[in-house]
Amino acid sequence: QVQLVESGGGLVQAGGSLRLSCAASGRTFSIYVMGWFRQAPGKEREFVAAIVRTGGSTYYADSVKGRFTISRDNVKNTVYLEMNSLKPEDTAVYYCAADSNPIRSYSGSYYPRDYEYWGQGTQVTVSS
Q1: What does each C-alpha distance from 26 to 54, 72, 90, 98, 121 come to in angstroms?
Q2: Rounded to a whole number, what is the distance in angstroms from the first to the last CA of the chain?
Q3: How many CB atoms are closer than 10 A to CB 62?
């Protein structure tokens, strides 16, 4: 089992920045991909960013490319999401997720169904 705990959400004005953290514990050696997803009220959960264990490649949704950066600290078993130039449409609950399937260790995944472990979520609100 893997446990994920997010932190760092909050209220920020448009154009501002936030950094989310996701601390993993348990069988962290089994994690091949770490991802961030978000869900706004009345909408489906959507992919934001992912980072793979093999090679550290990163992947982003078009809507956040150039503004958000995903990174990891392997010593701390923590993944970060640096969010800059925030927009009101970035308002959502942000979830950290982990995928333990090695088949995706190079390619990552954009699909929530591929991630077995999820954090509790952290609210990000961007005011206009």
Answers
A1: 20, 17, 30, 12, 18
A2: 40
A3: 6
64-79 pLDDT, tens digit per residue, is 999 999 999 988 999 9
Residue 33 pairs in a beta bridge with: 52, 99
Per-residue pLDDT tens over the stretch 91-128: 999 999 999 988 888 888 999 999 999 999 999 999 99
Record the tokens describing residue 65, joined without a space.
């490319």
pLDDT in tens, 9-27: 999 999 999 999 999 999 8
How many of the other CB atoms lie within 10 Å of CB of 51? 21
Output Rg (C-alpha) for the chain, integer angstroms.
14
Backbone angles phi, psi at 105, to 5 degrees: -65, -20
Report the 3 state secondary structure along 92-117.
Answer: EEEEEEEECCHHHCCCCCCCHHHCCE
Burial class (CB in 10 A: 0-12, 13-18, 19+), 95: buried
